[in-house]
Amino acid sequence: MTVKAPAKSPFTPEQEKTLVAWTKRYPFSNMGLVEALRSVQEWNRQILPEHAARVAEIFALPFSRVWGVATFFPSFTQWKTGKHRVGLCHGLSCWMAGSTKMETCLEKTLGVAEKTTTADGKFSWETMECLGACEQAPALLVNDRLVGAATEESIKKLKEGAK
Amino acid sequence: MTKVLTKHFDEPKLHELETYRRLGGYKALEKALGLDRAKILEEVKTSNLRGLGGAGFPTGMKWSTVPPEDKVPGPRYVVVNADESEPGCYKDRVLIDRAPHQLIEGLLIASYVIGAKDSFIFIRGEYQAQYEVLEKALAEAEKAGLMGKNILGKGFDCRIELMRGAGAYISGLDTALLETMEGKKAWPRQPPPFPTVAGLMAKPTVVNNVETLSMLPHIVEHGGKWFADLGVPKSGGTLLLSISGHVERPGVYEFPMGVKLRDALAAAGGVRGGRRLKGVIPGGTSMPPLMEKDLDISLDFDSVRAAGTFLGAGGMIVLDETADAVAVAHNIERFLAHESCGQCTPCREGGFWTEEILERLMDGEGVPADLENLTRVGTNITGKVICALGDTVGMVINGYMSRYPEDFKKRIPSNGQG
User: Fold this and answer.
1) Is the minimum CB–CB distance between A34 and chain B shorter than 8 Å?
2) Range of the domain at A130
3) Is the whole-model pTM more than 0.95?
């Protein structure tokens, strides 16, 4: 699959500047690619072929290279995550501490299945591999920030407290 | 008990430069910059410091495989592997949170010995809070003339840059980490060449773990022999264990290298609720468990290996008698199958089928041939793939089946017809 960058950039002028800055941050421009895609994921909550095509143009790389990276890493999604992307760890310690029960709780509290976003775009949830917080099992991560052990209470609070 | 890395962890502001320096921080860097690089390398060799990211490779030996500048001119790099993703391991997170300057000081010493003017800290994206701790610490260090040009006025230049990963476990393997840094899929490389010869952008590159590098200021300060004497022959110093699972007080604990498993468990309050021990995963879920009979073994790379498993990165998960070996193995194999990069067929396919068969056993639909197939599939992966992830798929399933055969047999319905 080859996708050409759309005539009009899918990014704002500010975002374009950030992407160009990633090409200059490290000794070799390609070294900024994963960080640049992290920015794209953060802005759009997903990475689509048109985004990858524009990034490829900025980095002077083939589309296939950028799309390959965008579809390899679990942090990058082709589906649109919620504004609050909730990750539930199901690594061994978290699973032993009852992460499966918390899956049911997330589904019930947020009202959507795994990797699905609420109609208002606010929340999505997904299981994640070990978050490196085994002493706080079962661990929750919201937008790359650890929020500690999940309980039915903490999940409810998370929903109520989110803007 | 001697503490090295966590000695000042009760200082609430240890993460700030001012506190770190008040407690003697960056004195070792100053000392190092006045020493001959070869002399520091000798001390690191004498210290018996081994890679604490999982492989246990002697650090001094790794460093000495970097070709000298007169033979291979041009840039060389030091990369910190802060992509801690092995289930059960979280000590690097704590080390960065509490003592970022200890890591930065160690990295600068390593960079001086290797001759790196650009060094990098590659940290997993999920550690955003720790990324910000490092960002702040680096800014402090730069402002104080400890990072950047002409460090401490001693004519040594070194810039440290941060980079985040994007959620792939395999990025924590050195060569896959370098691929990620180069803006590629995290596919492990087949060595040789090893990264010290051709690493980041094909330049000589040393990749060291957070804990390993954090040890360096102490080795420079007190000498290699002092460090070696803290541990056991061939493995010096201390180690951090991230303890979790069925234990009373999960947390990060520092012990001398070679601490008895029994003592490590006791420090964490022992098995929860006074239950009986079923096993202890010593180094993260890729390592098969130690058993109750192993309680008196010494936790160091060589002794754990002799007991049929690996110390890994010290991610210790305690399993009590309520744990079911099939369910535990299923959780680990599911993880490995998910994280296989897909490059080698035995791992990609074998991991998938291992998970599928275990799922069938869990659903009560196992057939007797499943057990043979699990062993066969596992044995056909280990040693036939590029990286350790694939080896692990076989090591884990065979490790659990040989240690807990009853748990597996129980999962085959008695009619055996499936």
Assistant:
1) yes
2) 84-161
3) yes
